[in-house]
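This is your field. Have a critical look at the following sequence-structure pair:

***
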Amino acid sequence: MLSRTTDSLRDIRRKLSERYGEHITHVTVGSILEAMGYSRQSNQKMLQVGEGYPDRNAQFEFINTKAGEFIKAGEPVISVDTKKK
């Protein structure tokens, strides 16, 4: 199993420093994560190749309308955007 993170190496370094008081470089953080099997992932929207779904906004409008109906009825709403792999 491959683990992923979208945090920058500098952000991870800063968080480690704040949490544990350890001071290491972002290069070292990258080496450690690579050794642990982590993979850096970029925002997939920036990598989209080819044509997107022609009416993607309509999908979100529909979901938003349905969510509003449930909220008005006092029901909980969970909306998850997934990607086909």
